[in-house]
Design brief:
The protein is an alpha/beta fold and 234 residues long. It has eight helices and seven strands, in the order E-H-E-E-H-E-H-E-H-H-E-H-H-H-E. It has a seven-stranded parallel sheet with strand order 3-2-1-4-5-6-7, sandwiched between helices. The structure holds NADPH dihydro-nicotinamide-adenine-dinucleotide phosphate. Belongs to the short-chain dehydrogenases/reductases (SDR) family.
């Protein structure tokens, strides 16, 4: 059954792979962007997730064009790495405001229509770093760990209404976000990954479409790693 899907940050990277995977299986897919426009073949809405009015407007446009959002993927996210002693409060807050509060804004706006429909799928894109930690990533790890508590609380609130909330925790995926890592850091990370390689964005997308499907109706509050074994034991 075709669904209406909204992927934040679906204009590039992992979000784009997720949007394309839903589109391939015949769903009606919208992506947010911040001015780049929508990739070919996808419906785009301009939206900065740090602005609740913009999030509301984006949902309203998608609802008018494609129908109520049944599957929302809170994927948009940023890093701003530096060691704890050097991290400013502004750097901490900015990352939290995008990755954690931004996901809250999106999930909250989606949930009212899902409650009315008595069906919904909320999927948060976290990171292996949320539970594993990462040097220089106090802000990022805190934001990504927060998504686990958020999904689990939503599960307790909305679980009886056919609404699931899950977390996908990618390891190191080949996108612009990991392009900025130094070769030395990349080599160090590769040594720790049992799979011995980075993943392609599409490998994350397959976990997301699975969680959104009817076959995953009894999976909620889960953290699904897509990390080549890096975070085993979480
Ligand atoms: P990219 O840097 O390639 O893309 C980030 C996306 O987020 C872009 O679409 C960007 O939009 C969007 N975005 C950032 N800030 C905002 C905002 N305030 N409002 C709306 N959109 C915003 O990242 P990835 O594709 O690599 O990452 C996607 C998600 O996966 C992130 O949440 C990231 O933390 C997570 N992740 C990534 C991993 C990796 O190895 N790459 C590993 C684990 C998790 P714009 O184009 O306008 O800048």
């Amino acid at each position: 059954m075709a669904r209406t899907v909204l992927v934040t940050g679906g204009n590039r990277g992992i979000g784009l792979a997720i949007a394309r995977a839903f589109a391939e299986q015949g769903d009606r897919v919208a992506v947010t962007h911040r001015g780049s426009g929508a990739p070919e073949g996808l419906f785009g809405v301009q939206c900065d997730i740090t602005d609740s009015a913009a999030v509301d407007a984006a949902f309203t446009t998608v609802e008018q064009e494609l129908g109520p959002v049944e599957v929302v993927v809170a994927n948009a996210g940023i890093t701003d790495d530096t060691l704890l002693l050097r991290m400013t409060e502004e750097q901490f807050s900015r990352v939290l405001d995008t990755n954690l509060t931004g996901s809250f804004r999106v999930a909250k706006r989606a949930s009212s229509k899902m409650l009315r429909a008595k069906w919904g799928r909320i999927i948060f894109i976290s990171s292996v770093v949320g539970l594993y930690g990462g040097p220089g990533q106090v802000n990022y790890a805190a934001s990504k760990a927060g998504l686990v508590g958020m999904a689990r609380s939503i599960t307790r609130e909305l679980g009886s209404r056919n609404i699931t909330a899950n977390v996908v925790a990618p390891g190191f995926i080949d996108t612009e976000m990991t392009d900025v890592l130094s070769e030395a850091r990349k080599a160090e990370i590769l040594k720790a990954i049992p799979a011995g390689r980075l993943a392609a964005p599409d490998e994350v997308a397959r976990a997301v479409t699975f969680l959104a499907g009817d076959g995953a109706a009894y999976i909620s509050g889960a953290v699904i790693p897509v990390d080549g074994g890096l975070g085993m034991g979480h």
